[in-house]
Amino acid sequence: MKAQRHKKWLITGFILCLGLILLSINAEAQKNSNNHKIEQGDTVSIEYTLKLDKMGIVDSNVGSNPLTFKQGAKKIVPGLDKAVLGMKIGDSKKVTIPPEEGYGSVVNEAVIEVDKSKIPEKSHKIGTVLQGKDPKTGQVFNAQVIEVKDNKLVLDLNHPLAGKTLYFDVKVLDIKKAPL
Questions:
Q1: How many structural domains is the chain composed of?
Q2: Do 95 and 49 share a structural domain?
Q3: pTM here?
Q4: What is the pLDDT of residue 34?
Q5: pLDDT score for 55
Q6: Same structural domain for residues 76 and 50?
Q7: What is the 3-state secondary structure (H, E, C) of the chain?
Q8: Average pLDDT over the chain, rounded to an integer
Q9: CB of 87 within 8 A of CB of 36?
Q10: For residue 20, what are the domain limits?
């Protein structure tokens, strides 16, 4: 009877020790992952608020789904991609991105005139955003009506944020290390 009780205590002690070891390993892994700085190829989740000069907040995902992207994969503007390098989970930063590192400069050649007959009449209003497809590449693009003339519409194919300085408030929510 004593031997059986002793055996139970040994097994219980062994299980407790094993549990403590696993907790310690898990805590160390968690500590190391929280200290990981964003590197090229990592999958990063951020919370952001975008502001423009004189316009205040124009976009934000605070309180909703994070923006998740692969660092360095050119899925976000280059300036923001560079700005998050080296940040860790929980880090916050204010980032100013000039047009060249954002949506680029305004390209004058991207302002074109089109015959009104080629655009539905209900879209003949300044500010209307039209969507088209490049017949050669199949790439979808947006164009905004910026002027209405007698027989023509003037369309701006520049990105709406082209030529603008972007002000981001960014917080890193998660980092998944790139596979080796």
A1: 3
A2: yes
A3: 0.71
A4: 62
A5: 86
A6: yes
A7: CHHHHHHHHHHHHHHHHHHHHHHHHHHHHHHHHHHCCCCCCCEEEEEEEEEECCCEEEEECCCCCCEEEECCCCCCCHHHHHHHCCCCCCCEEEEEECHHHCCCCCCHHHEEEEEHHHCCHHHCCCCCEEEEECCCCCCEEEEEEEEECCCEEEEECCCCCCCCCEEEEEEEEEEECCCC
A8: 87
A9: no
A10: 1-35
Return the pLDDT at 95.
97
| 96 and 113 together in one domain | no
The per-residue pLDDT for range 51-106, each reduced to its tens digit, is 999 889 999 999 999 999 999 999 999 999 999 999 999 999 999 999 999 999 99
> Distance between CA atoms of 61 and 71, rounded to whole angstroms?
18
Diameter of the chain measured on Cα atoms: 104
pLDDT at 32: 43
